Amino acid sequence: MTPKTYQQAGKTISIVYAIAPCSLGYLLVATTEKGICAVKLGNEADKLEHILNQEFHQAHIIRDDHTLKEWIQAILNFIAGGEAHLNLPLDVRGTAFQKQVWEALQKIPYGETRTYTDIACDMAKPDAVRAVGNACGANPIALIVPCHRVLRSDGSLGGYHWGIERKQKLLTQESKFLKDDSTP
Description:
The protein is an alpha/beta fold and 184 residues long. The protein contains seven helices and six strands, in the order H-E-E-E-H-E-H-H-E-H-H-E-H.
């Protein structure tokens, strides 16, 4: 869904969300009738709800932990290292460039990383490194679009909207899962 559609639709959009505790704090998953529109991580459930309400202030928002139980469980399995890929329906808003970056991020294999420069070059836009970083920071669906797998050119973690500690934990978990999975 485009930003303009969200603005024009206003209160006609219904969003259902659920929150669950996880090894990264709390996980919030929000959906429209088309798919997941937000995945957020945080230390406090009420702060995640506040962020969701600010981001979609014109939408009709309802919490329903039961309806989203299967999707929440799939994401929790991913966080725990039991799922290498999340194939869930999405309904994200962003510019054409942001969507292009997010699609490129979804192609990064589980347990691997890329640099912002790698992503820009893969998109045939080598001068757009900073814009790639901005698109990563604007990613509304953490984990499903794995922006945690993008590093600085020097190999350092760089930033992560949901906290550098969470980024490190996710990368460590993915690396550990791959090592455990490859043991005969």
